[in-house]
Amino acid sequence: MNIALILAVNLLVGLCVGLTGIAGFLLPMFYSGFLGMAPAETLALSFAAFLISGVLGSVNYYKSKNLDLRTAMILSAGSFVGAIGGVRLNLLIPEDVMQTILYIVVLGSGVSILLRKDKKDTGAGGAAKDGKILCFGLGAVTGVVCAASGAGGPVLVMPLLTLLGFSAHMAIGIALFDSIFIALPAIAGYFFNARLEQEMWMLIPVILAVHAVGVFFGSRNASKINQTLLKRVVAVGSVAIACLKLFLI
Asked: I need a surface site. Which of 28, 46, 131, 212 has the fewest CB within 10 A?
């Protein structure tokens, strides 16, 4: 087992998640595709990291006034319920089908951000902020898809929130908070079915600590990135990732 590589990947992914909200999906790809871990072990380790990134990231975004707690809590309530169903769904639907659904939505979200004309940004989105049912429903649907596919949350939630009118930084803050409530039921479900080696159990605290360092520094410096540039980076990244997963792999 290449411990140094595992730690390096978790540090880099944590940094990217803190800065842009996306990249968490790279962890399950790394664990399953490169290390050859079984789905339950892959998702258990990935969602443990997503919980850490969600907590640390949302705290830093809240301190920088880029987290609308009212919207985040409604969204997260839906995601918690959806994630419970997503873990169960993972056992019924083939993993490749769930991945396809996820990246079709990610592709559409990224393209929509690129095509959407920038308006005067007030930080919070009108439709999502005022519509509790919309927020809860969005959270439930994304919770199902993300918990079942191992996406974590922000890679899907962040572009959708941007489409609803939230600023890029606010969308990341809300998405990171939301990822906590996707991760909690996912961790419980996947660790229950995981068959991790003793060496990996002993390594988990170190992996999560390194991931936390990346998230902390990424989220602390995210506000320094120009918002329009950040939107474009996330949109282009979303489209590129979705195309790679859908058409090249």
From this structure: 131
- The terminus-to-terminus CA distance of the chain in angstroms comes to 25
What Cα–Cα distance (Å) separates residue 82 from each residue in 79, 196, 222?
Answer: 5, 26, 29
pLDDT in tens, the chain (249 residues): 588 999 999 999 898 888 877 777 778 878 877 888 888 888 899 999 999 999 999 999 999 999 999 999 999 999 999 999 999 888 787 767 766 776 776 677 678 767 765 544 445 554 444 578 889 999 999 999 889 888 778 878 888 888 888 888 899 899 999 999 999 999 999 998 888 888 888 899 999 999 999 999 988 887 777 766 766 776 787 788 778 778 765
Query: Which position has the token pair 């809860």?
Result: 136
Q: Which residue has the tokens 């969204």?
A: 75
Instruction: Please tell me the total number of residues recorded for the chain in this structure.
Output: 249
Is residue 152 a contact partner of residue 24, using CB atoms and an 8 Å limit? yes
Q: Which two tokens stand for residue 230?
A: 């950040």
Q: Which pair of tokens denotes residue 75?
A: 């969204």
- Is there a contact between 57 and 176 (Cβ–Cβ < 8 Å)? yes
Q: Which amino acid is at 79?
A: S
List Cβ neighbours of 198 (8 Å cut-off, separation of 6 or more). none
Output the six-digit token pair for 203.
Answer: 């390594």
Query: Cα separations (Å) of 150 from 83, 111, 147, 186?
Result: 11, 22, 5, 9
Which of these, 247, 242, 248, lies nearest to 104 by C-alpha position? 242
